[in-house]
Amino acid sequence: MSPSSRARRAGPSRARRINPRQRSAFAALALAVVGGLLPGTAYLFARRLRLGTVLTIVSIGLYGAAAYVGLRRRNDVITWALDPKLLLWMVVGLSALALIWVLILVTSYKMLRPLTAGPGSRAFGSVVIGLVCFGMAASTATGAQTLMAQRSLVNKVFSGEESKSQTRPTINSKKDVWQQLPRVNVLLLGADDGDDRQGTRTDSVMVASIDTKTGDTALISLTRNWMRMPFPVDSPLHKIYPTGFWDPNGPAEQSEFYLDAMYRNVPKLNHGAIGPSDNEGADVLKLSVGEALGLKLHYYVQINLAGFAQLVQALGGITVNINYKVPVGGNDDKKIPPSRYLEPGPNQHLNGGDALWFARGRYQVPTADLARQARQRCTVKAIVERATPQNVLANYQSIAKAGEQLIRTDIPQKLLGDFVTLGQRVKTAKITNIDLDKKKNYPSGRNPNYAAMRTIIQKALNPATSTSTVPKPRRTTATPRRPTTTKPPATPGDLTSECAYHPGPPG
C-alpha cells in the first residue's frame, strides 16, 4: 500500500479522534457542566462510548427509580426517613454519590477541553468547574446535616424497643395499624417547668381524638384546677385514691391535688406504683384523664411550654385572630401586672414569644382558664396550618433542633411512618372542639361531674349512637353525682368558627 493510500485511510480516522478536542473552550465547558445533569453524556461527546453509555444508562435508571419512588412509594419514603439506621446509610450513600458526581464532572471537562486552550481559558474553566463542584459539595453537606438532624430527632424524641410504658397499646406493626386503632386518642401536655417552679406542672392538658380513617379530630380541653381526678378500678392508684386524687380531710381548695399538679405529685407520693415507666407522670395522667373522660388514651405528646417559642419561631411564626387584649406576663396571685398586651386584630402574625403568651396569658382575663383553653386550641390549629411540607423542609434543621429540646412522647419509632401519614389526613380534615359544659359539670374545680362529661364525649364522638346504647361509665369514686338534665349535650364546635375574628371579651 502506498504512503498516500495509508494517509487517505488514516486521515478521516485521525480527524474523528481529535474532533472532540477541537471545539471551543467555552463549548467544552458548557458540555461538561450540562453533562453533569445526566452523568455519562459528556463522556459520549468525548467519544468514550463504552464508559459513557454505561454511565448514562445508570444515571437514567437512578432518575427513573427516584421518580417512581417519589410518585408511587411516598409512604415508603416516609418510613425510610424515620428509620435511624437507614438514615445513616442515606448519609453515606449521599456522600458517595456526590464524590462520584464530582469525579465524573472533572474528568469530563478534562476530556473535552481543547488541547490548544490558552492559560486564560484553562483558568476560567477550572474556576467554573471548581465552583460547580463546591456547590455540589455544599448541597451534599446540607442534605447530610438534614438527614443527621432527622436521625437525632428520631433517636432522642421517639421511643425505641427498650422504652418502658404502662399505658401504651400493643400494636402488631405487620398489620394495618389504623385497622387496629380506628380511633386514636392522644394526650397533649403543655409542661411548665420554669426556673421559678419546683418540679413540672402541666398547665395545659388536652386530648386529641382522631378518626384514623378520615383524619377528623376532636379536641377536648381539661381545666387545670380539676380535683378528685379518678383512676381505673384495675389500677393500683385506685386502691390508693378510691374517691379520686384529693385529700378527704383537707380544705375545700387543694392546689397540690389539682390536675396540673398530678404529673409531679402522684409519682412523688407513690413512686413505682404503676410499674416501670420512662415518664411516670405522663403515664399517671393517661390513666386518670382517660378514666375521667371515658376514653382509652393510647399515646401522649408533651411539650415544654418554656421552649414552645423556639418551635413556633422555627416555623416562621403563626397567624391567629386576637379578639381581646391578651396579657404578656403578669401574675394574678402576686398582683404583678403584665409587661404589655397583644392587641386585638384579625390575622395577627405572632413570633415565637408572642405565640407562647397568646396560648397561656391569663392575667385578669375573664373566665381565664376557659379563655386560655380556647386560645390554646386555636394555637394548635394555627401550627397545623403553618406546618406545610414546604415550610417544614425549608426550616427543618431548626425545627428538628427545637423538637429535640421540647418534645417527649411514647409514640414508638416503628409507628412513625403511620403517624406521619395520619398527620397528613388531619391537616386536610376537620378539627372540632367538644364543649364539656362548664356551667353544669364543673362550675368550680372541686367536684367535676365526670359521668356527665363522659356522656357528652361519647355522644359527640358517636353521634349515631342513641342514648340507650351509650356505655355506662364505671363508678370509680364515692363522690355523689349531679343528676343530668334532659337537654342534649353540646356537640363538637368547628374551630374555624371558634378561632375566627369576632372582637369582644371571652365568655
Helix content: 40-55%
Q: How are the strands ordered across the major sheet?
A: 9-4-1-2-3-10-11
Please give the radius of gyration in angstroms: 31 Å
Number of strands: 11
Helix/sheet category: alpha+beta
Poorly predicted runs: 10-18, 466-492
H/I helix tally: 20
Oligomeric grouping of the chains: single chain
Principal-axis shape: elongated
- Beta-strand content estimate: 5-15%
Mean pLDDT: 82
The largest sheet is:
7 strands, mixed
N- and C-termini, Cα separation: 109 Å
Describe this protein's structure.
The chain is of the alpha+beta class. Helices cover 49% and strands 11% of the residues. The chain is built from 20 helices and 11 strands. A 7-stranded mixed beta sheet has the order 9-4-1-2-3-10-11, sandwiched between helices. A two-stranded antiparallel ribbon has the order 5-8.
Note the main attributes of this structure.
507 residues; alpha+beta; 7-stranded mixed sheet; two-stranded antiparallel ribbon; 49% helix; 11% strand; elongated
